[in-house]
Amino acid sequence: MRSVLFVDPPAFCTTLEGLVAPALRTRPLAIARAGADRATVLALSPEARLAGLTPGMPVQKAQRLCCDLIVVPPNPQLYARASRALHEILQLFAPTIEPRGYGHAFLDLTGTSRLFGPPQDVAARLGREVRARLRFPISVGIAGNKLVSQAAIRADRQTGGLDGTSGHELLYVPAGNEREFLAPQPLEVLPELDPDMRFRLDEYQLELVGEVASISESALCAVFGRDGQVLRARARGIDPRPVLSPEQQSVFCLVHTLSSDTNDLGVLHPILRLLSERLGQRLRRRELAAGRLRLQATYADYTTVTRSVPLSAAVLDAELSDAARRAFAMANTKRLAVRSLALTLDQLGEKEAQLDLWAGERGSEAAGRQEQQGHEEADLQHAIDHIHARYGAGALRQGVPLTARRPALRHQTTTTLPKVALPSSTRCASAS
Question: What's the rounded Cα separation, in Å, for the pair 425 and 432?
């Protein structure tokens, strides 16, 4: 019998900000990017939620609703450091951990009952350990699969109050009771429910999970296509997805939301290069190669466009960056400003080198030159990774070619220098 835990620290980011600055602990607090034309609330403290604020709300509107609201910029380094510390504790109790953003994670405790006891005891020990070492609370959902363990916390937050922390810390759904537990819950409890699908369900006046579960599969597939089958299975609490560690996951994905909507290529291309460099570092760290790069662009009107580009040997950042720009060129068919960009690498596999068995003498010479060039590019990439690891991501910047800045030099073949006396760089010692 599977045992899956979902760890969800309530108000994770704002709680950490309160630990760093104790004066913020009892104040309505919002986290948002400063200086953005379209600044929206990223996270809220329980006090801010009690004032009627919600994540995604424009900052100006939030400040009008809550006059004493304190807005602080996000601190990704703090959140990442706290997440790593939390995962170090989780690794003591679970052999497999699947991180899901800052502070959130799935744990698979299947087969560990004789070692650690029942999952309820493990969850209670986790809560005590995290409170003692990291000084913030966690909520833990316990069920037989990932869907229901996450839905248990969302259901408790729905009935536990607006602050999101007044519910129970441990939420247990016994195996076999998944459908009965989900049936009276609103559809908002189902995690990862597509907004378009949610809108269609509203049009059919379906509000509860049990109402969707009672509809036949053929009727749902007639409306939603193949997604209707998955929707009905999840409404019944069926989720066969395994808990996968980052090393076992079959895709790498990064999403960047712009602080201001724009269609300026001078802004979008550097973002694509930065995302591709981060994905390339993940690939090389795990010695993997990707077979496809998928780009998804979200526009100001919330419409999305997705394009995919095949990859032959996606190990170097230059190849990934070039593929990302080609995919964006194919996807950018609208004149609207871009709101967010997402890059995904899938079809992952181990990095291999295949020799050409049928190349002739000329082919072998060309293959030798190509192989030498590949080694030089790999050595350059290794040096760049070493600099980034030691001095940070901003240690190196891509410069503009001289020919791009001075087009006149592109056709200039010779340069005549005037005859001038150049000063000597050697300093002569005077005789005493």
Answer: 22
The string of DSSP codes covering 127-196 is HHHHHHHH----EEEEESSHHHHHHHHHHHHHHS-TTS-SS-SEEE--TT-HHHHHTTSBGGGSTT--HH
pLDDT number for residue 280: 87
Q: Alpha-carbon distance 158 to 332, whole Å?
A: 39
Report the pLDDT averaged over residues 126-130. 94
3-state secondary structure 209-242: HHHHHCCCHHHHHHHHCCHHHHHHHHHCCCCCCC
Contacts with 49 (C-beta within 8 Å, 6 or more apart), sequence order:
162, 163, 164
User: Chain centroid to CA 406: how far?
Assistant: 39
Confidence at residue 34, expressed as pLDDT on a 0 to 100 scale: 73
In the numeric block, which tokens belong to residue 108?
Answer: 């698979």
Measured at the CA of 259, the angle between CA 56 and CA 301, to 5 degrees, comes to: 65
- With 0-12 / 13-18 / 19 or more C-beta atoms within 10 angstroms meaning exposed / middle / buried, residue 233 is middle
Q: What is the model's pTM?
A: 0.67
